[in-house]
Design goal:
Helix content is about 35%, strand content about 15%. The chain has two domains: about 10-140, Phosphorylase Kinase, domain 1 (2-Layer Sandwich); about 145-360, Orthogonal Bundle (Transferase(Phosphotransferase), domain 1). Helix 6 (about 160-180) packs antiparallel against helix 12 (about 335-350) and helix 8 (about 250-265) runs antiparallel to helix 11. The strands form four sheets. Strands 1-5-6-4-3-2 form a six-stranded mixed beta sheet, with helices on both faces. The protein has a two-stranded antiparallel ribbon with strand order 7-10. It has a two-stranded antiparallel sheet with strand order 8-9. It is built from twelve helices and twelve strands. With about 350 residues, it is of the alpha+beta class. The structure holds adenosine-5'-triphosphate and magnesium ion. The site of adenosine-5'-triphosphate has 21 residues, from strand 2 and strand 4. Adenosine-5'-triphosphate binds near residues 74, 139 and 196.
Length: about 350
Amino acid sequence: MPFGLVSAWNKRRRSKSHDHSDPWVYRPVEYWQLEDQTPRSTKRHHGSSVFTLREMEEATGLFSDENFLGKGGFGRVYRGTLRSGEIVAIKKMELPPFKEAEGEREFRVEVDILSRLEHQNLVSLRGYCADGKHRFLVYEYMKNGNLQDHLNGIGEAKMDWPIRLRVALGAAKGLAYLHSSSAVGIPIVHRDFKSTNILLDTNFEAKISDFGLAKLMPEGEETYVTARVLGTFGYFDPEYTSTGKLTLQSDVYAFGVVLLELLTGRRAVDLNQGPNDQNLVLQVRNILNDRKKLRKVIDPELSRSSYTLESIAMFANLASRCVRTESSERPSMEECVKELQLIMYTNSKGLGGVTYTLRKL
Ligand SMILES: Nc1ncnc2c1ncn2[C@@H]1O[C@H](COP(=O)(O)OP(=O)(O)OP(=O)(O)O)[C@@H](O)[C@H]1O
Ligand SMILES: [Mg+2]
């Protein structure tokens, strides 16, 4: 969990001991903001709104089945139409009582971090609802759902190679922005980067979502030791798992796993495989730099006319460096962005589409 954030909030609560208000009454960001860690000049609230429970019910037709989009660890997600007419995705917190405190923390982190960020590759938070014990997060609606469903879920036409490259580049740019200090003044580790947290808009532009586990890296520190390893099985940085040391490079590892999903069309963890083949990284790691063997793991759904083997080899090589066990040997997200631009250029040039210039990507 984002311990720095929470402790800042708790400290503030303790120091305001004269304030006897109900802990379930959500306080706006200003009350519990990251006063100790964050520079003053950060972007704040891009028009994100506070909604009532009634507005959430109205927007989703009382959480009707036809508006149901999917379910995750936090609760169900519904499509909704706000009074303004805007279509949004509404995530409803539904947790058993023993998990409520954890959910509340994730809710606060999501609202605080995401309302400060603005980037075309990060999903935007339109607002939230904290009415009594009810908690909702309201996001821009992403018409094409999450990346994993497109790779190996719903039976629609599969994404071809140029679109996959564009998704990889968009996600890389989103992570690079989080890792740079330009977002909130200090780098942010996402900590739960995975293909279900990459959402796709109408044009298949990738946007990263779910910042509930995100952690601001304290200034001047490159690692942060956590008491519990959090994230999703299949995307865990082995160094973080074994030492508890969180670095920006943990996101790079998870990014490498997503690159492998894009390349192979396989899941990060596939429980239908035998015990030795369940983990995608272990399955393919050793063949990523062997061009002959590499061909065997290319997603068979990819149309052969959409890729060049040169671009596949470059992509596999980048993925292999992202998932290195030693975090210091992995590239930075900035480097990944540059390499993916080059890979896109190489692919389009190899296919004869010389209209691309590197500058345009
Ligand atoms: N902004 C959005 N627009 C459209 N669909 C969304 C949006 N946010 C989430 N969804 C959909 O809702 C479903 C549940 O998302 P959710 O983030 O709760 O779960 P998850 O990513 O599968 O797991 P986790 O809880 O670990 O993040 C997903 O299928 C996702 O595609
Ligand atoms: Mg998610």
